[in-house]
Amino acid sequence: MVKFKENGKKILLAHGSGGRLTHELIKDFVKRFQNPILAKLDDSAVLKVEGRLAFTTDSYVVDPIYFPGGDIGKLAVNGTINDLSMVGARPLYLSASAIIEEGFPIGDLERIVDSMERAARLAKVEIVAGDTKVVEKGGVDKIFINTSGIGVVESGVDISSGNGRVGDRIILSGTIGDHGIAILSARERFDFQTEVKSDSQPLNGIVLEILKVSKKIHVLRDPTRGGLATALNEIAQQSGVGIEIEEEKIPVKEGVRGVCEMLGFDPLYIANEGKLVAFVPEKDSMKVLNAMRKNRCGKNAQIIGSVVKGHKGKVVVRTGVGGERILDMLSGEQLPRIC
Amino acid sequence: MCLAIPAKIIKIEGNLAQVDMAGVKREADIRMVKDAKVGEYVLIHAGFAIEKMVKKDAEETLKLFREME
Amino acid sequence: MKLIDEFRDGRIAERIVSKIEEFGSSKVNLMEVCGTHTMVIFKYGLKGMLPENINLLSGPGCPVCVTTQEDIDKVIGLVKEEGVIITTFGDMLRVPGTDSSLEQEKGNGADIRIVYSPVEALRTARENRDKRVIFLAVGFETTSPLIAASLLDARRDKVKNFFIFCTHKLIPPAMEALLMSKEVKIDGFICPGHVSVAIGSEAYRFIVKKYGVPCVIGGFEPLDVLQSIFMLLKQIKEKEAEVEIEYFRAVRPEGNKIAQKLISEVFEVTDVEWRGLGVIPQSGLKLRARFSNFDAEREFQPKVGKARRNRECICGEVLRGVKKPVDCTLYARICTPEKPYGPCMVSSEGTCAAYYKYGGL
């Protein structure tokens, strides 16, 4: 494993000033990421890409930076890969830039960069451009990471949140609430012990499988902040359609349910980082479901509902006990309550 | 008011117990359920056990529901 | 999940509902006193499953909703004291006072920490001896024994920097106040299951004796609520008025004696004002003299101006079951969960919040 050359054990302002320390830091990043484009150390990566480009960017400021199942680096890489995948693009190249707080331990930086390299390698995506800045203590909270990414969308693929159509089946790729609860459990003052891990993973593989069996995928969405409820509401509004889902069909891990019951949280509003919903015309739905289940990211995939005529822009849940309610978007944070 | 969830006692140390709720564990103050034993279920509200939940009574409740003919 | 999932079975629900339908179509007003019951009714869509003649009224058992604006303003005043840490249950964070809320003050840099348990609040005091830690003690008889226990521990361990701002209230007097006001005809009460764990079913005996209104103590799973409704309808049909325990897997007639003892050791009963209901005699708790050193009001003497109430907010009438959220001119147009004007919209189990989130069908 490549070890960072150290000048003391912590990141100093000098690491960001452009001089020798910066240069050494960059060289070590490059060795870690090991791809010929980055190694050229040019001001820009020159890439040859054919077809329609998808382009996305996201910043990651998660606290704590380490949590069961991952860290901020893994999150940053998978998150951008997934944003590209959700428009049906094949992710190709990522950039990664970090803003680091003075005094941040180099050992931690090493660990996070390793994690990003591993995540990129697993997803077969290359990190071809990067940047680091160092700011004074308090300027950022430990480390903030931005990743941007480009991918290619094959011709004929038209996937968008506005494409939901009456009759579409809604397929969820797996259990919800894992990531949000894992983050919560890693916070210092969380007095519960739980085995829940973040589900952060790249979804480009499973999306490729879905696209192989159906050319008619209407919508793909990864329900991150705000959870499944918020994602479904956004799609309902953007597509101008009504959605109905069955609560019983939605897979939730026991450990996630346990924490939610204790604190009064609803898993439908908790963030996920390795799941997707697909809106698929009825006649392709079984094919897509089976393709998802064959993939390691979709073992617990379920058809959870459909797009219906009526109550446009709204999501209705059929509850386990037989009644119905409106599923609203998340408003404000979910807070532990006594009532 | 009030959110209280049944959890199983897995260890007791004086007035504190380790309880397990579907794999989620935490400490709970059991001073309000003095004769609680390991293996029994208690209702947990804001970090305290407020009462025992007797499995037999739960089963009887369900039986009553089911007998609604 | 043990002891929970079985009580959410749809087939059993169907059966209970069809038994409920057998009672015919005369209108009945049933009040679920407890905010958590309101939440369950909405979350599981129970209203839609019941026949239309059954009118469910939401009562004042939402501790956040009945906290007076003056009390919120006093708490905001405490937030502004030097060297103070406020600890609170999450429920209280967004309740609007006259000029601000805890959430806003937190955004302005105040040290306000959400806790799951009063144990955490006491721990915060132990770990921050140079600060004065105030715990917002809100809740009914389910929660007040816990705060009593924490204060006993604080006294035993000589923790001198721990205080509570006490707004604890009692349920049975509020139920009586509603009946005495005669504003709404209440044909039966679904009594709060976990409050009753502490106080027992005998605490409601005076309601059936004096007012002849049936009481059923219900649990918090959807089947519990449906079964409680069935039991009330049966009593009404048979022209009975009794206190029945649906939730007998947790509630005993005598309640939990240790919990009752904890409350009476630390607190005494006093007259308090309920938002929307006015002053109800002997309906709240205050610290006994020998625990007065833990009283945040005594320590800090928060002064507040006259609370300016929003005239269009009808939370009071909603809390008494007299009006529904849709009758309020502010509801959903101006008053929303993001920007609540009244406490009924803030609390996740406040009637207006429940209607807004779940009831739009």
What can you see in these coordinates?
The complex is a heterotrimer of chains A (339), B (69) and C (361). Chain A contains nine helices and 13 strands. With 339 residues, chain A is of the alpha+beta class. Chain A has two domains: 141 residues, PurM-like, N-terminal domain (60s Ribosomal Protein L30, Chain: A), CATH 3.30.1330; 158 residues, Phosphoribosyl-aminoimidazole Synthetase, Chain A, domain 2 (Alpha-Beta Complex), CATH 3.90.650. In chain A, the strands form three sheets. In chain A, strands 8-10-7-11-9-12-13 form a seven-stranded mixed β-sheet. In chain A, strands 1-6-4-5 form a four-stranded mixed β-sheet, covered by helices on one side. In chain A, strands 2-3 form a two-stranded antiparallel sheet. In chain A, β12 and β13 form a beta hairpin. In chain A, α3 packs parallel to α4 and α6 packs across α9. The longest helix of chain A is centred in the middle third of the chain and has 18 residues. The N terminus of chain A is likely disordered. Chain B has a single domain, classed as Roll (SH3 type barrels). The radius of gyration of chain B is 13 Å and the shape is elongated. The model of chain B has no long low-confidence stretch (mean pLDDT 91). With 361 residues, chain C is an alpha/beta fold. Chain C has a domain of 147 residues: HypD, alpha/beta domain 2 (Rossmann fold, 3-Layer(aba) Sandwich), CATH 3.40.50.11740. Chain C has a five-stranded parallel β-sheet. Chain C has a four-stranded parallel β-sheet with strand order 4-3-5-6, sandwiched between helices. In chain C, strands 10-11 form a two-stranded antiparallel ribbon. The relative contact order of chain C is 0.17. Chains in contact: A-B, A-C, B-C. Chains B and C meet through β1, β4, β5 and α1 of B and α1, α6, α7, α9 and α11 of C.
| Tally of alpha and pi helices of chain A | 9
Helix percent of chain B reads 10-25%
Largest sheet of chain A, order of strands side by side? Answer: 8-10-7-11-9-12-13
- Order of SSEs of chain A: HHEEEHEHEEEHHEHEHEHEEE
Chain-averaged pLDDT of chain B: 91
Q: Biggest sheet of chain A, in brief? A: 7 strands, mixed
CATH top level of chain B is Mainly Beta
